[in-house]
Amino acid sequence: MDNIAEKEEIFEDDITSTMTEKEIIAQNIAFFRKKMNMSQTELAKKLEYSNKNISKWELAETTPDIFTLKKLAKIFNVSLDTLTSPITTENKKAIKTKAAVPFRWKLYMLLLVDAIFILLACVAYFVLTMVGYKGFPLFYIFVYITPVIDISVFIFLCCVRKKVDIITLSLFGWLITICFYISFINYPDISYIFLIAVGYQILAPILAMLINSGKIIKLNKLILKKIKKD
User: Fold this and answer.
1) Predicted local confidence at residue 142, as pLDDT
2) 110: helix, coil or strand?
């Protein structure tokens, strides 16, 4: 049996050695995608391409440009040289890629975390009700938990999309403002806190768009270069 397996490996390696560069890249894209348990649709979304492009690459009908190859190498957690070189049967086992966590499991984790937050809020409400706490209206507990849930959704969306989510970022400012407002509602002029929220609403989306566009990173690099020169 071992001899048969060895012969099959040698045969596969011989086939690989006769493949064109386009065919090698096609085979490697399919190999690494499947190794990461990633569908063509998921890979297409990460690259912002259509499913047809991925299919054509894997069928060796077309080949991605160098910039897309670099993105693919980053997604597969391998070097560009590994992605574009023949992979023999021997080193297939040695190659380690970071397995992609399916989207549904990420979503389940988010729901689980938020469910824990809500459960803790319910427990706090029940305990304070039982002891007859009168410090503040107890339904405020469920208001206070909303910024925490918003932050968890913000982190989830940022991790999935690899971009700063503007909607949840903006919503966080308003939720925090409401929490402060109801907490200090008896204080004079507390309503002016909404002016701060308006300022936040203007600045936060602009900052998020700059980060997503990469301009902030470029600006930081320019500043660092100037500091080094000085």
Assistant:
1) 94
2) helix
